[in-house]
Every structure is written in structure tokens, then in C-alpha cells.
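Researcher: I'm preparing a figure for a lab meeting and need a structural model of a single chain. I don't have an experimental structure, so a prediction will have to do for now. The sequence is pasted below. Please return the structure as C-alpha cells so I can convert it later.
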Amino acid sequence: MRIFIPGDSAAVSVGADEVASAFAELLPDIQIVRNGSRGALWLETLVEVELPTGRIAYGPVNLKDVQSLIDADFLHGGAHPLLLGKSDEIAWLASQDRVTFARVGIIDPLSLDDYRAHGGLIGLRKALVLEKISIIDEVAESGLRGRGGAGFPAGIKWRAVAQTISEEKYICCNADEGDSGTFADRMLIEGDPFTLIEGMTIAAIAVGATKGIVYIRSEYPYAISILQKAIDIARESDWLGARVLGTTNSFDIQIRVGAGSYVCGEETAMLESIEGKRGVVRSKPPLPAIEGLFGQPTVINNVLTLATVPMIMAQGAEAYKARGIGRSLGTQVFQLAGNIARGGIVECAFGISVDELVNTYGGGTLTGRPVRAVQIGGPLGAYFSTAQFDTSMDYESLIAAGGMLGHGGVVVFDDTVDLAVQAKFAMEFCAIESCGKCTPCRIGSTRGAETIDLIIKGVRIDENKKLLLDLCEVMTDGSLCAMGGLTPLPVKSAMINFPADFNGVRT
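Model: Understood. Here is the structure written out cell by cell.
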């Protein structure tokens, strides 16, 4: 018999370690598995008991609940106020379509046996017997696009690296998850690190790379620890190293820890940081696919992009592209955060509406007050009003509505929020996090925050709003990268969708 108690950062932050220790002390003969969180964060700590008929879930379990669960015979599914029934039948989870997160919360993150038993390494073994171009064709045919925010087709990027002649090539995984309200990269690494390693290995085989680097933010110490252990296990199992699974392919992975710079989430700034330099955005061209890390051809993909590749290779491109809408194919891992009753991970096909995410999955606000706004796509994403809640959550629809998908973060605000203050925050955020290389971003963000502050104080409102829009245009058109180029997006969306907040005194 096994008990599953999440050991990832989200669960640990609400007492999962203490709960696990209490069960271990009171039930010394029971195996306790520290799995990843299933993503229903309002139910943490979620405790699951493995029975012949499936797993039974209880939650949210606190330290004070441990003895009463034992008294209620929870090991055999006994009745208790925290009983949720079969884990797979919890409506919030059962209604999702988990592909990238299929194993997260299900397996022991550091058990290769668990990983293989749930479909791990099938994609890699298939890739090892295919021609390199066939692997790239499969990824391209699936329609997989970058999940880091840009949405660039992964197959096109891989093809460019594969066609560039060089003695050395790299696979760089961008795990510098700096957007507010996003946590999917961390949760996947902590809950299913082998799927990221497998995805990076498939990419390496496809383009002829021998070295991989995961650039991960220093604020994720537990994810760093889990990933390093997984890499060590993969090496010991002859998965990584000179002969990948006994073949002639050579590939290994190292971790590089970032120093807290938001702009290093931009791919070229990340490369500068990995090379030991200050994290400053590079001019393009050349593109990283041609001259990337240390001047060599480099595939740069986000965690979720690379972690989706094993499923695509195992199940086939057709199965993946059957999901989604328009040019947004497959699934997206949405992250619900902010003032929300049921925050967490929702993976489903592109095309779900904002309303369904926020009100059906999210359950509205935690405060119980009406939802007034959501910000989609991180701190540089647009603010949407409830009048726009029928918008489809896919790349093209969000752009058409004046926003962007970004990394899939959805941050909810109730009716107490002041959008002028939020717009000022966007400019201040840019001013703090700018690498400083280009003037529109470095100076424009500072002037923008000052101008919004004048509007909030009621100083020459019409004149300053016109000035602010002009400044936004300069930042959009003149900034070197998306840091300055996208900062006007939350500002302008707030002005357009919540004009009352920019009249000096909110009504």
C-alpha cells in the first residue's frame, strides 16, 4: 500500500512536509511517495491512498487532520469530511485534457520505473530509430509552438539548427519562469523531470546537438534539486552520456542557475548569462538558431515546449494536432492565479474561453466579490474586462482582442482593483527589470510611470493621456526586445478597457 503526498514547492508551502512526517511516524509500515502536485492548489495538501480500485483522495489535509484520518480508516477509503472520492473522478481534474502534464501528480518524480510504466521513453526510443529529418517533420506536423510566449513553431526552429553546419550544437531549455502568476515550468520540473530530459534528448538527436543546458531561475531551489537528481539518474541509467540508450548518439545536460534577472527570460539575454556575461539583449540577426550559445547553432525552447515533445513522438503528430483550434493546435497549460477561489493548473485544448477558465475552473474570486479584470500573459500581458470573457484562449484570438497568450498565466482581480495603478506598475516593472541597452525601454518606462502618476493625481489628465499613448508607441516601435516593446500592452489595454480609472478619480 502506498500513500501519495505531494512534495513540490506549492504543497510544501502549505505544510505538506509536516503532514508527510506525521503519517510516517504514525504509520511506519506504509510507503509514502512524495509525488508532484496535481495542480488543484486549493486542495493542497492532497493526500491519496492507492487502493486496488484506484486512488482515493482526501484534502486539503492539515497537520491537525492526520490522526482523524487514521481513525476514520482512510487507508481503506473510510468516510471523512475531507474525502474527495476517486482522484480521477474529481470533476476539476477529470474534465481536463492533460498531455504535457499527463504524469504530473501521478508518478514518483524520481522513479524511472514509474516513468516507464506511465509511457516514459516511448517517444525517445521511437526517435532513435528514425531519420533526423523525420523527427523534425513529426514535430512540425504536430503544430507545436513555443510555450514560452512567442508562439514560434518549434519544427521551424529545429529545422534551421539541423540545416546549419557546425561541429558543436546546443539545446537550451529556458526555465527562467519570471512572469507573475505563472508556475507551470516549476511544477512540471518538480513533478515529472524526466519528461523534460526526454524532450531535450529527442531535440538533440533531431538537430545533431551533443550538449544541453537548462537555464533555471535561482528562486526555484527545489526544482533545481529535483532536476539535478533526475539528470544524475538518467546518466547512471545510460540515458544521458556518450551512448544514449546504447546507441551512437551522445548527449548530456547541465543546469545553469540564473541570478534573478527578468530580462534573462529573453532568449539572447539568457545566452549572455549562460556565457558568464551580464544579461543584456543581443541584436538580431544573427538568430540563435544560426549563432547562439558560444556562437554555435542553438535550439532554445521553453520547458513546456520540450516536455510536450515526448508525447508527440509517442502518440503521433495527428493525435496532438487533433486538439485545438485554427493555428493553435494541441493543448495549453493555463495557470490560474491572483484573487481566485480555485487556483492551479488547467491543461486543455486551445479554444476554451476566458469565462470558463476564470469562473468554471477558477470558481470566481477568492474574496467572493465580482471579477473586474484578468491579466493574461504575465506582467506584460493585456488586462481584459468581463465584457471580453467570451474571448477564445488561443494565440490568434487573443491577439485579435488586443492581448497575447504569453506563458498561459491568468491573474484575476476583483472589483476593488484600480487599473491606473496596475498600469503604473507595468511601467515601474519595466524600469526595474530593463537591461538598459536601448533608450525607449530604459527611459520610456521611467517617464511612463511618472506620466501615469500625474494622471492618477488628476494633473492635466487629457494632455498626459495623449502623452502616455505617444510614449507607448515609441516604446513599441523602438525597443530592442519584448521587454520594452510589450510594456505598453497592459497600459493601453487598461486605458481602453477601463477608461474610468484614468479620469483622475475612479468612480
